[in-house]
## 1
Amino acid sequence: MPEVILKNLPFLLMGLRLTAEIAFVSIIGGTVLGVLVGVVRYFRVPVLAQVADIYIIFVRGTPLLVVLFICYFGFPTLLGYQARAYYAAVLGFILFIAAYLAEDIRAGLRTVRPGLVQAALATGLARAQVIRLVVLPIALRNVIPTFFNQYVRLFKFTSVASVIGVNELTGSAMLVNGREFAPIPIIGFIALTYLVCCFVISMVGRLLYSRLAVRA
Amino acid sequence: MSYKLDWAPIWNNRDLIIEGFVTTVELSALGLVLALAIGVIVGTAGSTNSRILRSGSAAYVELMRNTPLLVHMYIWYVALAFLQLPPFMCAVFGLALYSGAYVAEIVRSGIGAVPQGQRLVALATGLTSAQALLLVVYPQALRMVTPSLASICSQLIKDSSLASVITVAELTYQATAIEGQTFRTFEVYITISLLYLLLVTIVTYGLLLVPGARDDLEQRVSDA
Amino acid sequence: MTEEPMIILDKVSKSYGPTVVLRDCTISIKRGEVVVICGPSGSGKSTLIKCINGLEPYQSGSIRVEGVEVGARTTNLPALRTRIGMVFQHFELYPHMSALDNIILAQVHALKRERDEAETRARKLLDRVGLSQRADARPANLSGGQQQRVAIARALALDPKAMLFDEPTSALDPEMISEVLDVMVELAGEGMTMLVVTHEMGFARSVADRIVFMDRGEIVEETPTDQFFSAPKSQRAQEFLSKVLAH
């Protein structure tokens, strides 16, 4: 491994750790929010569904960078609070990914056969119970590949947090480059790191899917 | 809430916004054309019988896709700075290589979805391999993958915002500049959000004009 | 003492927009009776029984189950459905759960039974339908006939007063039909009130008390079994029988 990398490895690894942290929190938060929004839209809950529609149309048409700017600069100015880059970034990522996951879970809910829902109702379960115990578990299992595609995408997108000053992997790398002026090994290193991490995430997804998938 | 919304400064700077918008369109168009070219070549390679071509195609796709777009842009702008490419071209190449990988995957699966028999029939009527590909396979594959291509297209338009980081004066760059002058943070970013949304919507519905693409298009232009 | 019939349908009509699906259907089912509904496709048979447990709404008429009006706004449908079991043409087992869990689910969440008790009953029912070895199997690993038997056990787990069957063997390969019919015959022998939509005329002949013939949304005739097969009252029923029994 090139010397310049070895020398700065601890710093770069800290950046990687931050990347992983941001990605992890955003994935969990985004999944919870995304599933909620998707369910609300699928069942057309009055008022909430319309709000969700606007949210999704808006976020899906907006670049991630702009979403981050709105979270880091826009909201604080509007609402009068001081933002910390890390938290603004996580908020932005959660809002961003949830909009995509919501659409994916909505498609997943559609794949559950109406006959199955009827059968569950016929055994005396209330509608809410049917959704909770039958429809959602099946839909969630079936969308695992789609969800993990989004997770990989999010992992790559954490690099954009560097623009608002978060020292995750890309940010740290550019800082190191500012000192060492050795862009090729440094950028090569982080490109490889992203590659390996994305691969690992995809593999986890594939493993999970092979274990949990159900033929509905 | 002591912040009063004031849209006037945004309107006053509309020249900058329009300039940025035009640059975004130019950037996206050029990036898209290159991405399509790359994607068709790499994707077709991935659907051939040659092991080498298929592995090469897969390697390209995995390598390009799993590298964040921002890193792509840094590669051209920083790592390859000795080439002295203008930032605009760095962004174009970054977008093209990155999105090209996505296009390649779609082209590959699109070609794979065209029944084998089609190509064989074409060959049997005396067409060469190249003609069969061009006249028979591609058109059918295109019809099938149009929704996915539309979604890549809208993704690319939004991704172009990252060019602002390497100092390309596209829409997001101008927005930041305007914000620096007027401090109308919320208004300016909401405005460009809506402009991106508008651009993406126009392009997506424009693709509906491709014959045979209408069915399901809205449903499947999900992701980007 | 004659008691009121368990299930009473009175002039039930249903339309999907302009299409009339059920027209003035009137019928009563007494406790312990086994009634078979037959007729050509599209005659509304499935729709009719799905109205009885409220899975399908109806626009006019009345359906009373043990005195409770199914279509009334105040009726607690989930509670009603625990008293009527239903078996579907495509089995509809929950694919993400084992056979045992399929049978336990509604007991715990609809009847609020303790999990242990629910499991004991579930195992007993699996044994009764001959599948105690496959308690932990997922539906994907069970044959059609096995799945349908689990489905019957799932419906029985709630101790229903009556059972509705919607073409229970129509989706099965021929060699698996008898294993399901055997369970149904046993059930009838134990005095369960059953309403069965089916094409299996052999089953009807041996077990049913009455045959109801439907065509184009109407109940054309209802006749005691022996008489139906020897001398059906209506022309349409005669035509139908001759076609079905020809095989």
## 2
Amino acid sequence: MAHDTAHHESNTGKIWKVFFILSVITIVEVFLGIIKPAFLVETTVISMKLLNWIFIILTIWKAYYITWSFMHMEGETKGLRRAVVWTAIFLICYLIFILLTEGDYVYEVFKAGYKSWDF
Amino acid sequence: METAVTKTDTEDKIWGGGNQPLKASYGKMMMWFFILSDALTFSGFLAAYGFSRFKFIDSWPIADEVFNHFPFLHGVDAPMYYVALMTFILIFSSVTMVLAVDAGHQMKQKKVIIYMFWTIIGGLIFVGSQAWEWKNFIKGEYGAVETRGGQILQFVDTEGHRVGLEEIAILNSNSDRVQHDEKSGIWYKSEPTLPTYTIDEIRAGFAKKTDVLIRTQTLTAEGEKTILSREESLRRLQNDAIGIVEGANLRHNEYGTPLFANFFFFITGFHGFHVFSGVIINIIIFINVILGTYERRKNYEMVEKVGLYWHFVDLVWVFVFTFFYLV
């Protein structure tokens, strides 16, 4: 908005800091993806490998930095922020829950041998 | 000059539309809601991918074996490096974009031009890299055999290293079959591209190569593909195999289930299309910045709005990267 233009100080320092954080997270992800530490692969938490949980948490962490810092979500009003973020989080969680549950069910049906598919 | 910042002359009328509870301009707010709906579209795709993956959780292709190319390092097994580089390029173009927005807030036209230029270059490099990744996936590497049930059988030596079809096949020069083209038949019908080898040539070669085994799609408890014994390999190739698969398309995929290829092409394609349109929109705004449009308008909010879109593209890539390449 027009009245914003006059009193905006530069945020360059913060931008580079966020870039540094995002880079470090990506490097950690790639590093873990290449070496795949055995204990992270073997440990299972809530029916998924611990390594995969770590990847997902790091990804959400990155998403948080991109949205809050790069997209300036922190500077928006509470109303706009909640309208966008809560809607997305609620619907995405719901969608993931039903589809993954269903996928796992289909897997069990295939495994039970009611249907021959490996021939 | 009122095109981007809507004024309705109701600013002082609290009960006549003068309230702005979200304190954002119309354009910026609508960009946010567009991004929200687009985010839900991508989530729908990725959740569908998750569904299919859970359905085939013990036979899904291993991404490290599929995407292991790096430019100028031919034949070197380099999983993840290239896609990590692509991720960096996209994050960095996001950084230059946010620097452009920042410079816009301070009305520094020259700086906005420079930063937007680098953003566009980063976007173009990313789209090009994506195309290269597609090319490698479509072309394939070792080739495989498909069974009647649509399962993929790959060849490995006794140490578990992959063996390409060209090392196995014994060419039968008597049964050479040529590709039937549209121009050579009276009904102007062509046939799908013939594979380099026939299944019989592979069978003949496999029978002679006693140190080659077959690897199925099924994952072991350690997350590796199951390798069959020599007898079992011979039996499966003789009884079940019906054709050759080289590379990947929407129907066949030499790396495993075709669903993997379908989702890869669809999701990265849809994302690539977003990057491409982002580059186009960035170029339009870039030209406007050079022409001084926003200098005359006395605000650079348009740069901020395309910036939002551009960051969103980066945001989606962060998730695509995780779910296709890492998890």
